[in-house]
Amino acid sequence: MKYIDEYSDSKAVAFLLGKISELSLKIGRKVRIMEVCGTHTMNIGRSGLRKTLPENLKLLSGPGCPVCVTPPEYLSATMGLLEGGAIITTFGDMTKIPDSRGRKLSEYPETKVKFLYSPADALKIAKENPAKEIVFLGVGFETTAPLIAAVIERAKKEKINNFSCFSSHKVMPPALKALADDRQSRVDGFLLPGHVSVVIGRKGYEGLDIRGAIAGFEPTDILRGVKELLEQITGDEKKIVNCYKRAVREKGNSAMREILYKVFKPADARWRGMGNIPGSGLAIKDEYARWDTVEKFNLSLSAEPEPEGCRCGEVLKGRCIPPDCSLFQKSCTPQNPVGPCMVSSEGACNAYFRYEVAHDEE
Amino acid sequence: MCLAVPVKIVEINKEGATNGSPAGATGEVAGVRREVNTGFLKDLKIGDYVLLHAGFAIQKVDTTEAKKTLKIWEEIEEDAKE
Ligand code: SF4
After folding, report:
1. Is the pLDDT of residue B17 over 50?
2. pTM, two decimal places
3. What's the complex ipTM?
4. Cα separations (Å) of A66 from A82, A205, A346, A347, B2?
5. A70, A315, A352: which to mutate for ligand 1, most atoms within 8 A of CB?
C-alpha cells in the first residue's frame, strides 16, 4: 500500500535498531520512553518491537487510548440514557467495557446501540428515527473532536434536534504536563501522538517542558522517534521534534481547530486512573446546549470507583506495565475484561495480552 | 482511535458525499472505495493522498516529505550494506 509498506522495510528497521542500541549503551542507565498514543501501543505490539529493544530501554504505554481514560461514571450515565429510551451511537470500543454493575452496551440489541463508521452517520440515524433521542458518545482527542464538532454544527444548521453529543472529549497537552510532573512515572521522553499532532501541529506542544518526538505509526516511524529521543538524552537537550513530516505541519490543521473551538470550550476533565486534570476536557459551548446531552438530559456525573484490583490507572501513567497487575491474564482477559485497558484494542493490557506475553491459544 | 490511513483521492463529487460534507470525494485504499468528507482540506485534486480518519480527510500526505523520508531509508540501506 503506498505510503504504508515502505515504512516497515526490514533493512531500515535493522539499521535504526542498531543506532538505538549504540545510543542506549552510551547512555548506560535505564531509559523510560512513553508512547502516548494507543495506536502506537498496538503497532509496537503487533510488530514485536518491544522485545527487540536494548535491555535498558523501556517503552511504556501512556494515556492515549480514549476509551481507556473515559471514567466509569460516564458509562453508568450512558446506561441510564439507554434505559430511558435513547438510541446510543458510538465508534471505538466503548460497547465492550463493563460498567460498575457489569453491564455492557454490546449486550443491548442493535436497534438501541449502533456502531458507526463515521460520526456523520449519527445524523442519518436521527433523521430516520424522528421520535427517538439519538445520543452520540463523544470520546476521543483532538484528532476526533473536530469531526464531532462539524456534526454538531450541522445538526444546528439543519435543526436536527433529536440528536445530541455526550462529550467526554479530551486534549493531550495538559495530560502530558501532568505526566511530566508525576515523579513516579519518571518519563525521559515522549513519543507524541501522530494524528493528534496533525491537528495541533508541532506548535501545539509549545510551552511543555518535555522531550518529545512526533512519530508516525509504522515500525520505522516509531524507531525514528525513539532514536530522536535518545539523541536528545545523550546531547542533554529537551525539545519537540517532528519526525512525521509527511502528515504533521508546524501549525497543524487550522480548519479543524477552528470548528473544534467554535463548538467546544476547554473544561476540567476526569481521566480514568489519573483523576481530574485542569483544562484537559472539551465541553460543548452554551450556543450549542440543545445538542449537548449533559444539558438536554440534565445529567450530573459524580466520580465512581475503578473496578477492584484493576491497575489501569497506574498502567496509563507508566508507573507499571500490564503483567504487574495481579489480575492480568488470570481473571482479566480480552474475553472477560475487568478494566478498560483490556477492552480496547488500543489498550495497553489488551496489546500486551495479544502480542507481548506467551499464553495458550484458546 | 486516532487511527488514520492514507487513501488516494479517485473522484471529487460535486454533489457532496452522501454523509453531507459540502465538498465530498471518493478515496481508495487497498482497492476499497470509501467516501471522504473533505470539509477540512482545501484544493484537493484527484491523485492526492489524504489521511482518512472516521470518514473525514484530516490532512494531505505531503508527498515531497514522504519521498524525502523514503530517500533516507534508501541511504540507510546503502549504509547498511557497507
Ligand atoms: S490487566 Fe485488567 S485489571 Fe489489570 S490493569 Fe489491565 S485492565 Fe485493569
Report:
1. no
2. 0.91
3. 0.87
4. 21, 19, 9, 9, 9
5. A315
Which H or E run contains A61?
A: strand A57-64
Whole-number Å distance between alpha carbons of B66 and A203: 21
Q: How far is the CA of A310 from the centre of ligand 1 (A)?
A: 5
Q: In chain A, where does the domain assigned CATH 3.40.50.11750 lie? A: 2-62+174-242
In the sheet where A212-215 sits, what is the strand order?
A57-64, A31-37, A189-193, A212-215, A240-242
Q: Mind listing the pLDDT tens digit for each residue in A112-142?
A: 999 998 888 999 999 999 999 999 999 999 9
d(CA B8, CA A221): 21
Taken as a whole, chain A contains a residue count of 362
Cβ contact B76–A11 (<8 Å): yes
Cα of A349 from ligand 1 centre, angstroms? 6
List the single residue in B1, B37, B69 with the smallest CB-CB distance to A66: B1
The C-alpha of B20 sits at a distance from chain A's nearest C-alpha, in angstroms, of: 8
pLDDT in tens, A52-105: 999 999 999 999 999 999 998 999 999 999 999 999 999 878 888 888 888 899
Which of these, A78, A82, A89, lies nearest to A108 by C-alpha position?
A82
Q: Which amino acid is residue A9, in one-letter code?
A: D
Distance of alpha carbon B5 from alpha carbon A131, whole angstroms: 37
Displacement of CA A253 from its chain's centroid (Å) = 19
**A97 part of contact set with chain B, CB < 8 Å:** no
Task: Give the angle subtended at the CA of A32 by the CAs of B76 and A228, to the nearest 5°.
Answer: 30
- Stretch among A119-128, A141-150, B1-10 having the lowest mean pLDDT: B1-10
Q: Which is more confident, A346 or A163?
A: A163
In chain A, ranges of CATH 3.40.50.11740 domains: 67-171+252-296
Q: Which of A160, A106, A172, A167 is nearest to A301 (CA)?
A: A167
Chain B residue with the nearest C-alpha to that of A252: B59
Question: What homologous superfamily is domain A67-171+252-296 in, according to CATH?
Answer: HypD, alpha/beta domain 2 (3.40.50.11740)
Tell me if the domain spanning A2-62+174-242 has CATH number 3.40.50.11750.
Answer: yes
**Ligand 1 center–CA A226 separation, angstroms:** 27
Chain B, nearest residue to A154 by Cα: B20
E-assigned strands of A76-220?
87-90, 113-115, 134-138, 163-167, 189-193, 212-215
Decide whether any atom of ligand 1 lies within 6 Å of the A98 Cβ. Answer: no
- Beta carbons of B56 and A64 less than 8 Å apart: no
